[in-house]
Design goal:
The complex is a heterotrimer of chains A (271), B (741) and C (338). Chain B is an alpha/beta fold and 741 residues long. Chain B has 30 helices and 14 strands. Chain B has 4 domains: 20-139 and 294-365, D-Maltodextrin-Binding Protein, domain 2 (3-Layer(aba) Sandwich); 142-289 and 370-412, Periplasmic binding protein-like II (D-Maltodextrin-Binding Protein, domain 2), CATH 3.40.190.10; 415-455; 515-716, MetI-like fold, CATH 1.10.3720. In chain B, strand 9 (205-206) and strand 10 (210-211) form a beta hairpin. Chain C is α+β, with helices and mostly antiparallel strands and 338 residues long. Classes of the chains: A mainly alpha (271), B alpha/beta (741), C alpha+beta (338). Chains A and B meet through helix 1, helix 3, helix 4, helix 5 and helix 6 of A and helix 1, strand 2, helix 3, helix 9 and helix 19 of B.
Chain lengths: 271, 741, 338
């Protein structure tokens, strides 16, 4: 029966999805620093939570964690704020250059990252923002901006203008209309935009590696990379850290998957 | 209310971050050191640092570890941008490139002659008449390390080595998996390979600077390693550094070829090991010549403040002093570079050090010139091709030589600006002038618009400004670099030269083959992601209960950070340890596949990884699309006589297209541009530089080979290709919409 | 002859018994209307006939064949949905041709049938447009066309007119009746609008909470409603249901139903005087006025041609056509036979 076939396929893919995660879990539970794990044996003679405790007590993991939260959180707030406002202006206001701006937003997605790394660096150096979180805030917020503006604008486009007109008649200024009426009902789109920004910043490695040089400022990706050496990787610690790093994002995903599905397709299928 | 709170939180964080974000030197002077010391050495360094800080209040030293290759590129980027650490500690072969780019300062005039005289000359090499590095240890060379429990007498000749290795390669439980290997080492890396060349004839460099790869010696060495793998079967078919190290530490290898940095690790793993020189070639009577170098401190050229420089030099002197070298000697057993210490009991009575010193006698000095990078690179490529069976030793050595010469000329050739440069510069200026006119004319309009709708502009401008700064400006900067001669030698004083870089890109055969690979890579990926995502979405939406559960499980890959994913999958595909091979062998009785040492299978591994990463996104989009198709359409179709397949083909598919098409386009662009997966899974393009897509190829050109102008031109071409594709795609779609299906 | 027979149909959704043991016969070529308040099960019953829902128990018999396990597409019927369910990505022409293409009818034949149907419904001028470019009424007709093009012996309508404005609704009602007459097919029509029901149906099925209350011709239902529910549901303005005292009838255990049009505040032949009442409110319905009165604390509505001088607060005489009084049992609410 079709249903059985579908079930089998889904289960296969679920296993496919989860297997690497489980694998990392087993590595993190091993007490030697080895990467060998031919099977998923959770309870061999090497098991222990040592790696996790060592991670927290012996390394700077908590510092990296705090830094990542700070950097990701702030750039998310910055990015969402800017995207929400800019997208609103783009949605409600028509002006000559509008099409060009929209178009260029789209094309920024096409830049290969390699193109931007060196110039980024030089700009930040000139502005003395190297080795500071500020530099990261700006870069993370702004690289996520085009996509977020695009999403928010699509969402605003689906809101009927009547709401705003009613509010204007009730005596609101244009800003109040945005702030008091539109923003509150845009929460699904805001959530998605925020989630994307957060995830992008949380997992970002290359820019952080260029900008942050003081280990006290390391974010998680940098910290994790330091466990790796081409000549001696501490796999257990790395795996434990990898798991912890992934958890917030996965959790966020779970909680917001509902919004994800509706938000991504807003404005696309008009039945 | 929530939003007011958000604003406050933001302000708080903002100010909070300022408090510890900026690196402002207030009371204590902070000296930054970047190094690549292995962790047992790091601990010793930390102790040395504490000692210095205790006797020098007012100075704080921050030591940061970075892995060797990364250390190089990070320092480059930082120093180029005018910052970076005060001191950088690394192997001497980094000196050449850094000095050529003007990133480190000559030291011979900064430190007194007595200082220099206390060191082994190998530890303070001269490059272009300057001294750029002070080494605290000499050696860093390869030797034959053996497990004394298994090996009683180390071999003196290669024949003996092979015989012993054969003896010690054991499959104890007869499951056709080797439990103990005779010999393990990171044989695919040139550093571990070139010593053997000398055992068969001429070495790989002439006059310390010219590549000398097209020799019978090189070919013989190629064959030698191949034989070890295929004929004698004493080394694992795939063996990277990790694996070799692990095997030896577990006591599952009789011999390992490694350097002195690993001793601490083996001691900790309680292996009773012995040291011997790499065995002599009994036929030619020649010895393998491991590269002997030094690791030491160099001064960042950006440190110009005299007070800071003074303190930095003081730190440098301390860290290379007898006191600290003795500490290292005692703790991790490295050979000190200070000549006085050499005659001390601590060194003389150390069996390992004595043995190691013996080995050094056979060695060759590690060259520092930047040209060596080019030699490494071309050698690596063809050597790995030989091992993978794609090239014969004879052709490989010839090709490697040609490649090396070409790359060196690329690196060194500074195209001087000529007529073309003038033309292009002129053109640029004209464009700029036209642009300014154009903008100026629109300016009053702009002001009017600003006045008319101040609120909207206030909301729009910050974002536009930042995007311009962060995204648009670098774009134009990149264009500038692409028409310049920005490279290794012209680091600080590059000039516009014209379109030569573009010509080079288009006349390079590699470009087309990588482009083709990239297109195939992208298309197969996106097609697979969409197919899988769509199928799963349909199953979940229409056929199965527990929708929430499946959605959540299948979204996990998307949530995991990419770099973690890539490295994990790389491990899963490991030939010896990876569970995938294990699975294939136990459940399907198939032989273990050498996933990562052949180009096609490596690509396949990258493909699987990318599919794992990519299908959730398509699934989510498809689910959203499915949810917006009203049920009544299906009912009407049912009544109209459509069966399940027809309903999919005629209703579901056409109504999903408007949603899937943008998703596919996005997916195409992301996959085309995705550096992480290919770079990390294949380990920078191995084997033999075959596993490249355009972006990784660009990355390599820029950051490994210093061909910045070339890389910039290539980046721009990639961008234009994508734009063109995007246009064509959208155009095709709107055409399709006009004519009904 | 019965085209459809429903025997003991029951259906439950979650814990809700939506259809309770329905028995119904539908005659060939009749226009049968299923009417009732929302939630009464009429749509479910329609969908059961279509095959879009399967009954928990009971038999669905179409043209003498038990079709419980037959797929909708094989039941040889057509359905017009409340939301029209037009394929948004196909033109009007393709929407109409959809089912014929599936049957592998030849293109020329398709063209002939589609054009014929389009002409019939006067939608030829926008055959190449997409549904989103049409007005509500136009979409309605396309939905109709899609059903008609198959020339089915049975057409099911699921509240097709509820999204149209009053004017269009009236027009479409006539259209649909016309179609029914010309095509001579069997029609089952679901609506919650009792005016539609009474004007369109050959027979009406009044449903409430999953049960059939009464099946009969509109006039019979109008004159002889089975119980107070049917009396109140059919007929606009709504019937007066009175208890207490009226027209010298002391009403223990009975309730009286009298339609507003059978009451007057002015004398007329055939009407008896039945006391006085006070005018609370006057509703102007154009050709008639609806007078809201109170008599002995009982609210009564009267429908008649406008009376000059009648005003709110006025005390006026009340007249009733006595033979139109319907009596119901006060407990069972069922009509009492005369």
């Amino acid at each position: 029966m079709k249903k059985i076939f579908a079930l089998v396929v889904i289960i296969l893919f679920s296993v496919f999805s989860i297997y690497p995660v489980l694998y990392v879990l087993t590595v993190s539970l091993r007490t030697d620093q080895a990467f060998q794990a031919n099977q998923l044996n959770f309870f061999g003679d090497n098991t222990g939570f040592q790696n996790f405790t060592r991670l927290i007590t012996e390394t700077d993991f908590l510092i990296w964690f705090r830094n990542s939260v700070l950097v990701s959180g702030t750039s998310t707030i910055l990015g969402v704020t800017m995207a929400a406002t800019a997208a609103y202006a783009l949605s409600r206001y028509s002006f000559k250059a509008k099409r060009w701006i929209l178009f260029s937003l789209l094309t920024t997605q096409m830049f290969p990252a390699t193109m931007l790394m060196l110039p980024f660096f030089i700009i930040l150096a000139k502005l003395q923002l190297i080795n500071s979180f500020m530099g990261l805030f700006i870069i993370y917020a702004s690289t996520a901006l085009p996509f977020c503006i695009w999403q928010m604008k699509a969402y605003y486009d689906t809101l009927p203008i009547d709401l705003e007109e009613a509010a204007l008649l009730d005596g609101c200024s244009k800003w109040q209309v945005f702030y008091k009426i539109i923003l509150p009902i845009s929460s699904p789109a805001l959530v998605i935009t925020g989630l994307f920004s957060f995830m992008a910043a949380w997992s970002e490695y290359m820019i952080a590696a260029i900008v942050l040089q003081d280990p006290a400022l390391y974010t998680l990706p940098l910290g994790l990379k330091s466990f790796q050496a081409s000549l001696a990787t501490q796999w257990g610690l790395y795996a434990a850290a990898a798991l912890i790093v992934s958890i917030p994002v996965v959790l966020l995903f779970f909680m917001l998957s509902r919004y994800l599905i509706s938000g991504l397709t807003v404005g696309s299928v008009k039945g | 209310m929530i939003f007011q709170m958000k604003k406050i939180i933001y302000l708080l964080i903002f100010s909070f971050s300022f408090s510890f974000a900026k690196e402002s030197p207030t009371k204590p002077v902070q000296i930054q050191i970047w190094h690549q010391m292995i962790y047992s050495h790091r601990e010793v360094l930390a102790r040395a640092i504490t000692t210095f800080e205790n006797s020098n209040p007012g100075v704080k030293i921050r030591a940061t570890y970075r892995e060797t290759e990364e250390l190089r590129s990070a320092f480059q980027s930082a120093a180029m941008g005018g910052s970076g650490p005060h001191l950088i500690y690394g192997p001497s072969d980094q000196v050449g490139p850094f000095a050529a780019m003007g990133l480190i300062s000559p030291l011979e005039n900064e430190l007194p002659t007595e200082f220099w005289n206390q060191f082994d000359s190998l530890a303070v090499p001269v490059y272009q008449d300057h001294r750029y590095i002070v080494g605290d240890t000499v050696g860093n060379h390869l030797m034959l390390i053996y497990n004394r429990k298994i090996v009683k007498n180390p071999p003196a000749t290669i024949a003996e080595l092979i015989a012993q290795a054969k003896q010690y390669t054991i499959d104890s439980d007869k499951d056709s998996k080797i439990n103990q290997w005779g010999l393990v080492f990171n044989f695919t890396e040139p550093f571990f390979f070139v010593p053997w060349i000398n055992a068969f004839g001429e070495g790989f460099l002439k006059n310390q600077i010219e590549p000398n790869l097209n020799t019978t010696a090189t070919q013989a060495a190629f064959t030698f390693i191949q034989d070890l793998k295929i004929k004698h079967k004493v080394i694992p078919p795939e063996c990277d550094y990790e694996m070799a190290n692990s095997l030896f530490k577990e006591g599952r290898a009789a011999f390992i070829i490694n350097g002195d940095w690993s001793w601490g690790d083996y001691k900790e793993a309680k292996i009773d090991f012995g040291i011997a020189p790499l065995p002599q070639n009994e036929v030619t009577k020649l010895w393998p010549a491991p590269l002997v170098g030094t690791k030491g401190y160099s001064l960042n050229a950006n440190i110009t403040d005299s007070e800071e420089k003074k303190i930095t030099l003081k730190v440098l002197q301390f860290l290379t002093s007898e006191q600290v070298q003795t500490l290292f000697l005692a703790e991790v057993g490295t050979l000190p570079s200070n000549l006085n210490l050499r005659s001390q009991a601590g060194v003389k009575n150390n069996a390992q050090l004595t043995a190691s010193a013996q080995v050094m006698l056979y060695g060759q000095a590690m060259p520092m010139v930047p040209e060596v990078r080019a030699v490494w690179d071309s050698l690596r490529k063809h050597y790995q091709a030989v091992l993978g069976g794609q090239e014969l030793p004879v052709t490989a050595s010839e090709a490697a030589q040609l490649d090396a010469i070409k790359q060196i000329s690329n690196m060194n050739n500074v195209t001087q600006p000529g007529l073309q440069a003038k033309l292009i510069s002129g053109l640029l200026i004209v464009i700029l002038i036209l642009l300014s006119f154009f903008l100026l004319r629109r300016f009053p309009e702009f002001i009017r618009a600003l006045r008319a709708q101040p609120l909207y502009w206030a909301m729009l401008l910050p974002s536009l400004l930042i995007i311009f700064l962060i995204v648009v400006y670098p774009f134009f900067y990149n264009i500038l670099i692409s028409i310049s001669n920005f490279g290794l030698r012209t680091f600080k004083d590059w000039q516009i030269i014209g379109l030569q870089n573009y010509v080079e890109v288009f006349s390079d055969f590699q470009f087309y083959s990588v482009l083709l690979k990239t297109i195939i890579w992208t298309v197969t990926n996106v097609a697979t992601h969409v197919a899988i995502g769509l199928a799963l979405a349909i199953f979940i939406d229409q056929l199965l209960p527990f929708k929430g559960l499946w959605r959540v499980l299948l979204i996990i890959p998307w949530a995991i950070p990419q770099y973690i994913t890539a490295l994990t999958w790389r491990g899963l595909f490991n030939q010896e340890y990876g569970p995938i091979n294990h699975f294939l062998q136990t459940w399907f009785q198939l032989p273990a596949v050498q996933w990562l040492s052949q180009p096609f299978t490596t690509f396949f591994a990258c493909f699987i990884t990318n599919v794992w990463l990519g299908f959730p996104f398509m699934m989510v989009v498809a689910l959203g699309g499915l949810q917006s198709i009203p049920q009544s359409l299906y009912e009407a179709a049912k009544i109209d006589g459509a069966n399940e397949w027809q309903r999919f083909k005629l209703i579901t598919w056409p109504l999903l297209l408007p949603v899937m098409i943008p998703a596919a386009l996005l997916g195409f662009i992301w996959t085309f541009n995705n550096l992480n997966v290919v770079w990390l899974v294949s380990n920078s393009g191995e084997p033999a530089d075959q596993t490249h897509i355009l972006v990784s190829y660009v990355y390599k050109s820029a950051f490994n080979l210093y061909r910045y102008g070339y890389a910039a031109a290539l980046s721009l071409i990639i961008f234009i290709l994508l734009m063109a594709y995007g246009f064509w795609f959208v155009h095709k779609k709107s055409l399709k919409e006009k004519t009904s299906i | 002859m019965n085209y459809i027979e429903l025997k003991n149909i029951s259906k439950k959704f979650s814990n809700n018994q939506v259809l309770k043991n329905i028995n119904l016969n539908v005659k060939s070529s009749e226009f049968l209307v299923l009417v009732g308040p929302s939630g009464c099960g009429k749509s479910t019953l329609l969908r059961t006939i279509a095959g879009l829902e399967t009954p928990d128990s009971g038999d669905v018999i179409i043209a003498g064949v038990r079709v419980n396990s037959v797929q909708p597409q094989d039941r040889n019927l057509a359905m017009v949905f409340q939301s029209y369910a037009l394929y948004p990505h196909l033109s009007v022409y393709d929407n109409l041709a959809f089912s014929l293409k599936l049957k592998k009818v030849s293109d020329t034949e398709i063209k002939k049938q589609v054009l014929e149907t389009a002409h019939f419904l006067q939608i030829e001028s926008f055959l190449d447009r997409k549904p989103k470019a049409l007005s509500g009424g136009q979409r309605q007709r396309v939905a109709l066309g899609r059903a008609l093009v198959k020339r089915p012996p049975l057409i099911l309508f699921d509240e097709p007119l509820s999204n149209l404005d009053a004017h269009l609704r009236q027009q479409m009602r006539l259209e649909i009746k016309r179609i029914h007459q010309q095509m001579n097919c069997t029609v089952i029509y679901v609506t919650h609008d009792q005016v539609e029901a009474t004007t369109m149906g050959d027979r009406i099925v009044v449903m409430k909470q999953g049960e059939i209350i009464q099946v009969d011709q509109p006039t019979k239902i109008y004159e002889s409603p089975q119980n107070t529910f049917v009396a109140g549901f059919i007929g606009s303005p709504e019937i007066n249901i009175l208890s207490g005292e009226f027209n010298n009838l002391k009403m223990n255990n009975i309730e009286i139903g009298i339609r507003p049009e059978y009451l007057r505040i002015q004398e007329k032949a055939g009407y008896q005087n039945t006391g006085t009442a006070v005018i609370n409110y006057i509703e102007n319905l154009g050709s008639h006025n609806l007078y809201h009165l109170t008599q002995n604390d009982v609210k009564i509505r009267v429908l008649q041609s406008p009376v000059e001088g009648a005003s709110v607060g006025q005390k006026i005489p009340l007249y009733v056509k006595a033979e139109k009084i319907i009596r119901f049992d006060a407990q069972t609410k069922m009509r009492l036979q005369d």
